[in-house]
Amino acid sequence: MGFNMKAALMPQGVHLVEISDVKEKPSKKKLNQWTITLRGWDRIEETVMCWWPLEGPFTFKTRRYLALLGFAPDAIVEERDLLGKKFYVAVKHEEYNGEMGAKVDEKAEGSTFGAWAESNPPPEVAAREASAADIFAGDPGNQDVPPDGEPAF
Fold first, then answer.
1. Would residue 50 count as lying in a domain?
2. What angle do CA 22, 82, 6 make, to 5 degrees?
């Protein structure tokens, strides 16, 4: 199943995304599904993924995704409840029907079918954020003062 991203070729890697639109419509196999538009939180791209609703053969995946978004296991979730929710996804590129496409890597290490909760990012994102925090951990008050004590300007 995956998130089957078709609308845009989102770059490979891990991205923080936000659910910006949800519509219920039938799949090619006539199963009702949610078509969810994701907006890259750190990018402009939008892309689409599909989740099956809470009834049918893929309920277990949908429930796992909903849990990572903070919903209780027995929650009754409607499309509008998903709007604005953020989470991380691992994106990989694959050829599909002769064209390259981007989709969620459901087998990404440490993920829930290719996804992580916003509050629990994958290790590479946590390390990148920690590194960025280290850059700003110094005393910002003396950034413009050279070692001789004279202001730089």
1. yes
2. 40
Q: How many helices (H) and strands (E) does the chain have?
A: 3, 6
Q: How far is CA 54 from CA 18, 108, 118, 140, 150, in A?
A: 21, 24, 22, 50, 66
Structural domain that includes position 129: 13-135
- Per the domain annotation, does 30 fall within a domain? yes
Record the tokens describing residue 31, joined without a space: 């199963």
Residue 38 domain-assigned? yes
* pTM for the model: 0.72
For residue 21, what are its two tokens?
């639109």
- Number of structural domains found in the chain: 1
Cα separation, 75 vs 91, in Å, equals 28
- pLDDT tens digit string along 90-138? 888 888 788 887 788 889 999 998 899 999 999 888 888 777 666 666 5
